[in-house]
């Protein structure tokens, strides 16, 4: 029989009649059964002739509808969050969640520290590359000026201008290579900064959640 199992209304201790009537009008809690598990659903819901008891919840939160739809919705929650009878279980669940969040926060801190170190290393590398690039540019300018000077002067003895040209070309290639290295370092730094900001946002959210759990 359907009445072997309580309804939601029977399990709630509602002292305010306005609240009780609202829940009955809006949700019909007097006709929603609470069943121990899904094994009894077919006997109670699907085979019932009582049109007033065509909906039920099991203890793990699964929701069932009887005639005419015969639908079932599995509960996605791993543990109840409200109406927990056993306060010790509720405390243990909260402590477990806090511990899990704390571990995640520690992991994010480690990631953020590693990212910070990589960003600092990239800054140092970029500074070194910038200095080297400035030095090579000055050297390039000196060679270019020297080549122009040689070309503009009539020297009786032959001067191998190609030596200067080869040195300038080699220096230009080195400058271009160094520019590419600097661009790679800058790109890597930008990516690490984005990763750092993402990790920091997650860290803040988890920290807020821990504070929220502790304060309850």
What do you see in this structure?
By secondary structure, the protein is of the alpha+beta class. The protein has two domains: 72 residues, no CATH class; 129 residues, Orthogonal Bundle (Helix Hairpins), CATH 1.10.287. It contains five helices and four strands, in the order ααβαβββαα. A four-stranded mixed β-sheet has the order 1-2-3-4. Strand 1, helix 3 and strand 2 form a beta-alpha-beta unit. The longest helix has 66 residues. The chain is rod-shaped. The two termini are 41 Å apart. The mean pLDDT is 78.
Q: What would the principal axes of the Cα set say about the shape?
A: rod-shaped
Q: How much of the sequence is in beta strands?
A: 5-15%
CATH C-level name of the largest domain: Mainly Alpha
| Number of beta-strand segments | 4
The CATH architecture classification of the largest domain is Orthogonal Bundle
CATH topology of the largest domain: Helix Hairpins
Radius of gyration, in Å, reads 38 Å
Structural class: alpha+beta
Average pLDDT score = 78
Report the major sheet.
Answer: 4 strands, mixed
Strand order of the largest sheet: 1-2-3-4
Order of helices and strands: HHEHEEEHH
The N- and C-terminal alpha carbons lie at a distance of 41 Å
What share of the residues lie within helices?
55-70%
Number of helical regions: 5
């Amino acid at each position: 029989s359907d009445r072997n199992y309580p309804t939601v209304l029977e399990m709630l201790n509602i002292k305010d009649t306005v609240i009780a009537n609202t829940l009955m009008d809006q949700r019909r809690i007097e006709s929603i059964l609470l069943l121990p598990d899904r094994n009894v659903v077919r006997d109670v819901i699907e085979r019932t002739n009582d049109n007033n008891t065509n909906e039920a919840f099991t203890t793990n939160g699964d929701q069932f509808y009887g005639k005419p739809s015969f639908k079932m919705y599995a509960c996605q929650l791993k543990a109840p969050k409200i109406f927990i009878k056993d306060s010790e279980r509720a405390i243990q669940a909260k402590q477990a969640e806090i511990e899990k969040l704390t571990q995640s926060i520690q992991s994010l801190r480690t990631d953020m520290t590693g990212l910070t170190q990589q960003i600092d290393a990239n800054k140092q590398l970029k500074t070194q590359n910038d200095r080297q690039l400035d030095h090579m540019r000055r050297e390039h300018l000196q060679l270019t000026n020297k080549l122009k000077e040689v070309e503009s002067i009539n020297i009786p003895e032959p001067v191998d201008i190609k030596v200067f040209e080869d040195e300038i070309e080699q220096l230009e290639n080195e400058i271009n290579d160094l520019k590419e290295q600097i661009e790679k370092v800058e790109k890597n730094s930008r990516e690490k900064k984005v990763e750092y900001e993402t990790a920091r946002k997650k860290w803040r959210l988890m920290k807020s959640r821990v504070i929220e759990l502790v304060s309850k």
